[in-house]
Write a structure and sequence with these properties.
The complex is a heterodimer of chains A (87) and B (561).
Chain A: E1 19-27, E2 33-40, E3 46-51, H1 53-63
Chain B: E1 3-5, E2 8-20, E3 29-36, E4 39-44, E5 49-55, E6 60-63, E7 65-67, E8 90-93, H1 110-121, H2 126-129, H3 139-147, E9 153-154, E10 157-159, H4 160-168, H5 179-194, E11 199-203, H6 221-232, E12 237-241, H7 247-264, E13 268-270, H8 282-295, E14 300-304, E15 309-313, H9 326-332, H10 336-344, H11 346-355, H12 362-365, E16 369-370, H13 385-392, H14 396-406, E17 413-419, H15 423-431, E18 436-437, H16 454-465, H17 471-477, H18 480-486, E19 502-505, E20 511-512, E21 516-521, E22 525-529, E23 532-533, E24 535-540, E25 543-547, E26 550-551
Parallel strand pairs in B: 2-5, 2-6, 7-8, 8-9, 10-11, 11-12, 12-13, 13-14, 14-18
Antiparallel strand pairs in B: 1-2, 2-3, 3-4, 6-19, 15-17, 16-17, 19-24, 20-23, 21-22, 24-25, 25-26
Helix pairs in contact in B: 4-5, 5-6, 6-7, 7-8, 11-14, 13-14
Classes of the chains: A alpha+beta (87), B alpha/beta (561).
Chain lengths: 87, 561
């Protein structure tokens, strides 16, 4: 049995990065379609974040996908990348 | 009281024979309403004379409605009736929401603020350049400018972003404020409140036309605390746009607002909060936290709109509406010239149609509706895509492409009632005692959808059709409750001594009309509006402002201080 890890001892494996696990279309209060992404955070918690049109389009472009279902599995960090050419 | 002439009481105006729903929530009573000098002078069996009489037999007589979330700031400078809000029975509006107001504002910052209004509220540039002269910089100057021809009452908020711009200049959108700057901003807020502002608005979300965060978003927590301290000197409102895209963050903001409310004895309100199938736990979780904080004594009012949410799009710009259709999505993301070329390519169009199913998109797209506007042929406005496609002898998906091509991609299409539309969920939410009915955004988003008629929709859908609220409950929500939440003294009830803001309407007919496009903005700019249905007469401070389908240019409105 492994000894319990001391308080300041680094974890043996780095925490998993936050990952998109699902996506669907929502409605914005401004009358435009929005992207609702479900994220699994590094601590295992799953929660939803709503992206407006510009952010949603950017995420899909950065992930190189043209269908909602293809977003699952991509890193949430993709949202931070600069826009790339369209697919 | 009514004037007395030789023992005979004479009112300026009597509304006779109606059913009075007085705003308190009490059951309606048959009564007359007498008005003198702009004030309710009597409610009951008033068998007295009046200079003017309105026959309200068969009608409801209620306090004028109060709309607590609008962006009429600029429209009021050329339209003191705030059309068409007034004809829906709205007699008091709150502009200046979401950190944006037209004062205090130095001349050199006008262009920057206009850009924010354009980006956030979709106001056309001409509305700020063609229709009025900027005669003010300070808040009292703006109040004076709108008061010249007001036919509706105005309870204005002052925006956090413009206060920052005044004190910090360009640094307002770059950094946190110093202690000295915060002190200057506190003094400026105090000056605005003394000039008529009913509170402060701020935003944690919005961006300007360059997609940079608005100034209010650069504030440290301490800055808002210091503002709340000033608001607490007179118990004024703090209005907030929280990070509504994430429930966890909204809840954190509710907690922050609750602490400010408790520490400084102020009311706070936030919006938007709406129901959506994509985020079904958002409203329940948010409301649970609101209930917790009210139980502690805090006042954190969630504003909830009554109308369902529609999604609109055209081929002019990319939309996530097509994120389930990869071929369509790829085409929509192309630069305009390439997009046009793709839509003219037979192979591409064949692929697009195939992707919508064996029925040519009838099930998936057929219920889309053609909207009015500059880009739509008038003969098909209001019709469904399936109807138009049948007339053209085309599959709906093909008709969508061809209609767009024939009209330079400008035809707007509408997917109706795709959010906040489930009556079984929204009805109980609106009836919740801690829900503040509002969030209309009146005067904003004008080229995207109509923000008028939410009160009529409340009374038609959730009173008449579903019965989630009684008429008395619903009227209370949009009159006395609102006045109390916002500290609007002697408004929102039909009681002796209250301001005579009154709406006379047919309870069996009141509703919002169909949405349609009009070109009445400065520079012949387009906006979507809805006219009222079933509203007979609207009285503001004792003077008829709207009657029989016509506006009266009463100029009886005031800034509520």
């Amino acid at each position: 049995m492994a000894a319990p890890r001391r308080r300041h001892e680094p974890a043996e494996t780095p925490p998993a990065e936050t990952v998109i696990v699902d996506a669907e279309i929502g409605c914005g209060h401004d009358g435009r379609a929005e992207l609702v992404v479900s994220l699994r955070w590094s601590n295992g918690h799953v929660s939803k974040v709503v992206l407006d049109t510009e952010a949603g389009l950017r995420l899909m472009r950065n992930c190189g996908v043209a269908h909602l279902s293809e977003l699952a599995g991509h890193s949430w960090r993709k949202i931070l990348e600069e826009s790339k050419c369209s697919t | 009281m009514a004037e007395n002439f030789g023992g005979v009481e004479v009112f300026d105006l009597i509304i006779k024979g109606g059913s009075v729903v007085d705003g308190s929530g009490r059951a309606r009573v048959a009564a007359d309403v007498g008005i003198t000098n702009g004030v309710i002078a009597g409610v009951g069996a008033l068998g007295t004379d009046a200079r003017q009489t309105i026959d309200a037999a068969g009608r409801i007589v209620a306090p004028g409605f109060i709309d607590p979330h609008t962006h009429f700031d600029v429209q009021l400078l050329w339209d003191g009736e705030a059309r068409p809000a007034l004809e829906h029975g709205v007699t008091t509006i709150v502009p200046g929401n979401c950190s944006l107001s037209l004062a205090p504002l130095k001349a050199e910052h006008r262009r920057g603020l206009v850009g924010m209004f354009q980006q956030i509220e979709e106001m056309p540039l001409a509305a700020f350049t063609d229709a009025f002269e900027w005669t003010w910089e300070r808040f009292d100057g703006y109040v004076e400018a709108i008061e010249r021809a007001l036919s509706i009452n105005v309870a204005p908020l002052v925006g956090h972003s413009v206060i920052r711009m005044w004190v910090m200049g360009d640094a307002a959108q770059k950094r946190a404020a110093t202690r000295d700057e915060i002190a200057q901003m506190q003094n400026l807020l105090r000056e605005c409140l003394e000039a008529g502002a009913v509170g402060l608005s701020t935003s944690f979300v919005d961006v300007d036309e360059r997609l940079h965060p608005v100034p209010s978003r650069f504030a440290y927590r301490e800055e808002l605390d210091e503002f709340a301290k000033v608001l607490g000197e007179s118990g004024k409102m703090l209005q907030v746009v929280p990070e509504f895209y994430a429930t966890d963050l909204t809840i954190a903001r509710i907690d922050q607002l609750a602490e400010l409310s408790l520490a400084y004895a102020i009311p706070t309100t936030f919006s938007p909060l709406f129901d959506s199938a994509a985020t079904p736990d958002n409203v329940p979780r948010t409301m649970a936290r609101v209930e917790e904080q009210f139980a502690r004594g805090a006042r954190v009012w969630p504003q909830v709109q009554t109308r369902p949410i529609d999604i609109s799009f055209s081929f002019e710009r990319p939309s996530l509406f097509f994120a389930r259709f990869p071929s369509w999505f790829r085409v929509m993301r192309l630069p305009r010239a390439e997009r046009l070329a793709a839509l003219r390519d037979a192979d591409t169009v064949s692929r697009l149609v195939q992707e919508t199913g064996a029925d040519g998109g009838r099930a998936m797209l057929g219920r889309l509706r053609v909207r009015g506007g500059e880009g739509a042929p008038t003969e098909i406005v209001g019709r469904t895509l399936a109807e138009v496609a049948d007339d053209r002898g085309e599959a709906p998906a093909l008709a969508l492409v061809n209609l767009s091509l024939e009209n330079d991609l400008g035809v707007p299409f509408l997917a109706e009632s795709v959010g906040h539309q489930d009556s079984a969920r929204v009805g109980p939410l609106l009836a919740h005692p801690l829900v503040h009915v509002g969030a209309s955004d009146g005067g904003a988003h004008i080229t995207s959808f109509s923000t008028y008629g939410d009160t009529g929709f409340l009374l038609s859908r959730y009173v008449r059709e579903t019965g989630h609220l009684t008429l008395e409950q619903a009227v209370r929500k949009i009159t006395a409750d609102t006045a109390e939440i916002w500290g609007l003294e002697r408004r929102g009830k039909l009681e002796t001594g209250y301001a005579a803001d009154v709406v006379v309407f047919d309870a069996e007919r009141i509703d919002r009309g169909e949405e349609h496009a009009v070109f009445d903005m400065p520079g012949r700019g387009m906006r979507y509006v809805r006219n009222s249905i079933g509203v007979d007469t609207v009285i503001v401070n004792g003077t008829i402002a709207y009657s029989g389908g016509a506006y009266a240019a009463s100029c009886a409105g005031v800034v509520c201080r």
